[in-house]
Amino acid sequence: EVQLVESGGGSVQAGGSLRLSCTVSGFTFDDSDMAWYRQAPGDECHLVSTISGDGTTYYADSVEGRFTISQDIEKNTVYLQMDTLKPEDTAVYYCAADTTRYTFSSCAGGDVPPDELKYWGQGTQVTVSS
């Protein structure tokens, strides 16, 4: 059974840091491109960062230089270190594998293709106060 389980969300003041973790099972982690998405209230689901099996990374412009994605293949876990957090980073953050688009109408639902849905986690809330 495919599972992606996020943890590490919470509330923090602007300028603070959080580290999200996503532990996966049920598929070959090191062959997958792992991604973090986020969805704020009333907004679409947007790609934040990705890391491929060879370690190649991508960051959205809005988080470049503040967020760092990494992975521990032995632990089947991908991380998102978030520093210098801003109120506009407030969102539910989702871990996903092998996604095909930068934006969806809704994370882990909406117009995510049905055969991709099982490769999404349940989300973890990040709240940044000013």
Helix and strand arrangement:
Blueprint: E1 3-7, E2 10-13, E3 18-25, E4 34-39, E5 45-51, E6 57-59, E7 67-72, E8 77-82, E9 91-97, E10 103-104, E11 124-129
Parallel strand pairs: 2-11
Antiparallel strand pairs: 1-3, 3-8, 4-5, 4-9, 5-6, 5-10, 7-8, 9-11
Helix coverage percent = under 10%
- Kindly state the number of beta strands: 11
Taking the alpha carbons of the first and last residues, their distance comes to 40 Å
Structural class: mainly beta
Number of helices: 0
Protein described:
- With 130 residues, this protein is mainly beta.
- It has no helices and eleven strands.
- Strands 2, 4, 5, 6, 9, 10 and 11 form a seven-stranded mixed beta sheet that branches. The chain has a four-stranded antiparallel beta sheet with strand order 1-3-8-7, with no helix packed on it.
- It is globular, with a radius of gyration of 14 Å.
